[in-house]
């Protein structure tokens, strides 16, 4: 346990030292470059099953240089079961539409862990994804196979981040 604390301590020390050193640097960037960089650091959600020219999210991608989008199946604030995900073909089309509006390729994220955190549900036509607990209680080879299959599926749909 002491070794873990030592590693954490030195990691934090390096981070704080680096942070304090960086604060003293004076880097001046043109305002448009700063706005571009700020936009690239944003990963946001939106409501909609498709993306077209008239949508606010498209304006944000084009004008604010958004770095990424996260897709959800359930709209928590509105308590609606429809947000961005209804079927594999719809998701693939939506991601393609979003990417077509971006000058710099977008990060497209989903939170697909299996079990309770499962945005791409079998009810929508996606394969059933077991929970991490179920996989952990099984064989390593099965865990690897399921993980590779899901990684390939997410990539083929256009996702490049899975939380």
What would you say this structure looks like, in words?
The protein has 163 residues and is α/β, with parallel strands linked by helices. The chain is 48% helix and 10% strand. The protein is built from 6 helices and 6 strands, in the order H-H-E-H-E-H-E-E-E-H-H-E. The strands form 2 sheets. Strands 1-2-3-6 form a 4-stranded parallel β-sheet, with no helix packed on it. A two-stranded antiparallel ribbon has the order 4-5. Strand 2, helix 4 and strand 3 (107-110) form a beta-alpha-beta unit. The two termini are 28 Å apart.
In short:
The chain is an alpha/beta fold. The protein has helices spanning 2-24, 31-40, 56-64, 88-100, 132-136, 140-157, and strands spanning 43-44, 68-70, 107-110, 112-114, 117-118, 161-162. It starts with a helix and ends with a strand.
- What is the percentage of strand-forming residues? 5-15%
How do the helices and strands follow one another from N- to C-terminus? HHEHEHEEEHHE
Secondary structure: helix percent:
40-55%
- Separate helix tally: 6
Main sheet, how many strands, which sense, barrel? 4 strands, parallel
User: Which oligomeric state applies?
Assistant: single chain
Q: Number of DSSP strands? A: 6
